[in-house]
Structures are given as structure tokens and as C-alpha cells.
Amino acid sequence: MPLRVHVDVVSAEELIYSGETEFAVFPGEAGELGIYPRHTPLLTRVKPGTVRLKIPDRDDFELIYVSGGVLEVQPTLITLLSDTAIRAHDLDEAKSIEAKQRAEEALKNRTTDANYASAEAELAQAVAQLHAIKKLRKRPGS
Amino acid sequence: MASGKEIRNKIKSVESTRKITKAMEMVAASKMRKAQDRMRAARPYGEKIRRVAGNLSHALTDYSHPFLVTREQVKSVGLITVTSDKGLCGGLNTNVLRLALSRMKEWDAEGKKLQVTAIGNRGFSFMMRAGANIVSHVVAMGDTPHLEKLIGPTKVQLDAYIKGEIDVLYIAYTRFINTMKQEPVIEQLLPLSGELVGSSSRNSWDYLYEPDAKLVIDDLLVRYVEASLYQAVAENMASEQSARMVAMKAASDNAKDVIGELKLVYNKARQASITKELSEIVSGAAAV
Fold first, then answer.
1. A30, B66, B78, B139: which could form a disulfide with B121 (CB 3.0–4.6 Å)?
2. Residue range(s) defining the domain that contains residue B44
3. Is the previous residue joined to A2 through a cis bond, with omega within 30 degrees of 0?
4. Same domain, yes or no, for B91 and B10?
5. Do B204 and B144 share a structural domain?
6. Between the CA of residue B277 and those of A102, B1, B268, what are the distances in Å?
7. Whether residue B177 sits in one domain with residue B128
8. Are A70 and B52 in contact (CB < 8 Å)?
9. Which residue of B has its CA nearest to A117?
10. How many residue pairs bridge chain A and chain B with CB atoms within 8 Å of each other?
11. Smallest Cα–Cα separation from A62: which of A52, A72, A71, A70?
């Protein structure tokens, strides 16, 4: 029987694949990576592309599309931490700049000149209301 | 005493309120199940990435990333508040914001500067009124948390951390314990403290890195922080839906009580008017 290795493909939003494989191909950043069991420990980035897994007792490959991520290889365990979004340094940068701008714009529109004290007063009021509701509910016969 | 018609109208209005709260309760119940599933679905990634990052800190590596280094002097603080977009969910947002505010006042007293990232509309508008320095925000996330929307606003804080504009990054959110119980917490996100440098003994092997160690570790640690954040947002959403369900159930029960009381008052009023009419007729007949 050929050697097997456990593969987990996970993304932040779900577990995509978990199972045994005899041979796996990943779209590594520096080129395709073919991995057999007992591979030396390896940590690499993965490009968007297709992962091919040779499942025992099946002739065809299991195909999984990933939009990039980080691949960890241990002799007995392969973990692919897949991204859910298309990631690129420039793209992340653009998102961060956009987020900053939105915040700045929102701050510009801030009309009231409030501070911690008034905010706390506001919260205290909300808490008091909640307490009152709780007490009212506990009151017997109401 | 209010007339019969007035009470009838009041009963009708409370009944329609109850219909609404009942419907909201059921909607929240079904959304809660989905939100809990999503929260659980996010766990494997968190566990895996924690393990990989743990291995990484054990493996002999001569590159130490700023995320792993605790700074001696903390001059400024980053805070990410996770709240819901909508209200009507009991004390959920109030509690977490109260906790955040008490910490903010502490930092203020210690002379630490603060910059805030607000996730969720409630926290955002609160921080706006509180006059906090908001560097980024996410609102209108809908019912499913998407990592894509979180990347940009988080990166603002991560960049600030790397540049040394903030020395520590906290996250405030509501942890989901069970349907009846949710707990507001503040956790330290950066620097990644002892949790990673876990119990297992120091290994004498190192990974092969492709293309090179620095790039891979950078990527991995950013993902680790994002995964923790995603988990917090997913938990917060599950908490939100359960809190809303409980709040709406309480509202429906209250409405039921109120309707009961009003019906009693209405019937008493009706009885009284019938008795009055009867006695008028009887006394009228006696007079004839």
C-alpha cells in the first residue's frame, strides 16, 4: 500500500477539505509543488490556482480551487490555509487606504463636540433602562 | 376610567406590537442557528493557523517579526470594537461599549494615545459621539461576516503597529457562551503574547521557506491576526442574534401580560357599564 499523508484545506470561513492523500500538487508561489508523504517541513505561499489531490482508491484527482494562501508541510500532515479573498499586496494597500479615507470623511462630518463624559452618561442611561426593565420583569404579579 | 373603545384600541395596538416582536424573535432564532454554524466553521482555520504559528515560533528562525515582540514602553494603544449594526438586542452593545469605555478612560488617564477601529454601526456611532480618534470602520456587514471587508480597516491598525504608531492592539467584542449568556471581553491581539509560545519543547528543525522566511512569516502572521478578528466578528454575530432572540421573547411575553391586564380592565369597565344601565332601568321601572 502506498504511503499516505493527511491533508487539511481550511479557509477562515469554512473547512474545505480534510482527508488522506497519496500525492498532492499545490500551486506554490515559486512554481508547482508536488508533495509525497514524509516530505521535509516546508512553509510557503500559494498562488491562486488549483490543488490536485490523489485520493487513495480513486483514479482521478480531487480538484480544489484556492485563491492563494499559506501552505505548511510536515512529514505526516499537510495544511493549506486558504484565503477567502483574492489577496495581493497592492490590493490590500488600496483597501487600507480606502478604509482610512472613509474614516476621515466620517470624522469630518462629526457635528457634535462630545467627549468621554457625555458618552458615558449616555451609556449609563442605557444601562439604567436595562436594569429598570429587568426589575419590572421580576416584579411578582405584574 | 378609560372608555371601552379606548381600551379596545390599546389592546389592538399592543397585539400588533406583539406580532412584530414575535416575528423578530423567530427571525433571530433562525439567523442565530446559521450564525452559530458559521462561528463553528471558522474554528478549524483558527486552530490550524495557531498550530502553524506555534510551530513557527519553536522552529529555529533568526527572523523575529514585530508582531511577536513585546514593547517595553506602551505609549499608544489601538482598539478594535466589534458591535452589531442594528439595535434591539438587549444590552449586548451597551455592555461591550461600557467595558471599552472604562479601558479607554484608563488609557486616557495614563496619557496613552488611542486610535479606534469600529466594526459595526453601533460602536461606530458611539465612538463618533465619544470623540474617539477613529482611523477606520466597517458598517453594514449584513448577516454573514466577510473577511474581505475586514482586511482594509484591520490593515490600518496593523500598519500603525508596524510603524510604531501604536504599541499594543486590543479587540473588544462579545464572546458567545451559549444562547442565554454572552460576555463582553477585551483581548490583546498584538503583540502575539505567550499563547503561541506554548508548552511543547523546542524543536531543532526549521522549515524550508519559499520564497524566503521573512515574506512567508509576514503573510502568516497577518493572516493569524485576521483569523482571530474574523472569529471575534463571527462570535459577535452569533451573540447578537441570540441576544436579540432573548430580548424579543421578553418583549413578546411582556406584551402578552399587558394584553391580559388590559382585557381585565376592559371587562371590568364593560361590567360596570352594564350594571349601571341595569340599575338605571330598574330604578326607572320602579318610578313608574
1. B139
2. 31-245
3. no
4. no
5. yes
6. 70, 16, 14
7. yes
8. yes
9. B130
10. 172
11. A52
Tell me the pairing of strands B168-176 and B182-190: antiparallel
Would residue B89 show up in a list of annotated catalytic residues for this protein?
yes
What one-character DSSP code corresponds to residue A58? -
A-facing residues of B in 188-207 (CB < 8 A) are: 205-207
Q: What distance in Å separates the CA atoms of residue B95 and residue A130, rounded to the nearest whole number?
A: 10
**Pair (B91, B15) in one structural domain:** no
Q: Domain check: are B98 and B180 in the same one?
A: yes
Query: Which of B128, B134, B147 faces A84 most closely, judged by CB atoms?
Result: B147
Which residue is closest to B118 within chain A, CA to CA? A103
d(CA B125, CA A106): 10
CA distance A134 to B182: 17
pLDDT digit string (tens) for chain B, length 288 residues: 557 888 999 999 999 999 999 999 999 999 999 999 988 888 888 888 888 877 776 665 667 778 877 888 889 999 999 999 988 888 899 999 999 999 999 999 999 999 999 999 999 989 988 888 889 988 888 888 888 888 889 999 999 999 989 999 999 999 999 888 999 999 988 887 655 555 454 556 778 887 788 888 888 888 888 888 998 999 999 999 999 999 999 999 999 999 999 999 999 999 999 999 999 999 999 887
- Complex ipTM over 0.85: no
Chain A residues with CB-CB distance to B219 below 8 A: 45, 70
Cell of A12: 477562515
Residue of A nearest to B98 (CA): A123
CB–CB of B152 and A95 under 8 A?
yes
Scan residues 71-90 of A and list those with Cβ closer than 8 Å to B. Answer: 72, 74, 79, 81, 83-85, 87
Domain total in chain B = 2
pTM: 0.83
